[in-house]
């Protein structure tokens, strides 16, 4: 019988489906010091983002039976993929399940920064009535520049179009022939967009995709939304741009350090923030669970 360790939790339905398919499932978190040793006795590991599958963890599994690591989510930056590959361990993710949830959160942040939703919430709770201060803008009729036109970017483009926005995009793979939106080079997109939304992985060799230079190129008074990875945007450059008014607002779900330590940024009145909850919906988690089951079933069939 194949043994599966779910170290960051897994939907009950998914666990039951795996058991019905004949897998043995242990739903338990182990500290990194012991994880590798524990994994010697498991065929597959399922993680969300809390468990870091580092080179050390992979090396400690040597001589064991681990064959597969499944990331229940999109980003695989908490897994040392090269070390896993070298050890003959496959790494898979669930790329389809959370696109709509992340796209909806990006939109939620766009509305929040355009209409001061978060800021007016907490100032009202402090007894303030700042009606005059919170004159916002409509998002309909504005240009949304999407950076990264994968599944999430495409889901956002559909929804934003339905809200009356004009979508332009940039993608590391260039123009995509099946899309009717305008493809622009990054700097051109930054120059004309009222909102930009990022949907790209973090490339540690390239560093932050949006730093001081890119923020300077952006349209005066534009907005930036990051529901991708914290390090894709240079937080200190962003803070400077928010303080100078160059950038009118930022919607941020992901941070350079998580849990976040940048108190100044999250307390900025023009920032709408959430604690990395892009995929945290009942629907996405349910679909992620189904996708995890199907990945494991197909791998071991
Ligand atoms: C993902 O990569 O799936 C999302 O950022 C959500 C998460 O990491 O929990």
UniProtKB/TrEMBL annotation:
Pfam families: 2-Hacid_dh, 2-Hacid_dh_C. It comes from the Bacteria. Keywords: NAD, Oxidoreductase. Residues 107-278 form the D-isomer specific 2-hydroxyacid dehydrogenase NAD-binding domain. InterPro entries: D-2-hydroxyacid_DH, D-isomer_2_OHA_DH_cat_dom, D-isomer_DH_CS, D-isomer_DH_NAD-bd, NAD(P)-bd_dom_sf. Residues 5-301 form the D-isomer specific 2-hydroxyacid dehydrogenase catalytic domain. One of its GO terms (molecular function) is NAD binding. Belongs to the D-isomer specific 2-hydroxyacid dehydrogenase family. This is 3-phosphoglycerate dehydrogenase. The lineage of its organism: Bacteria, Bacillati, Bacillota, Clostridia, Eubacteriales.
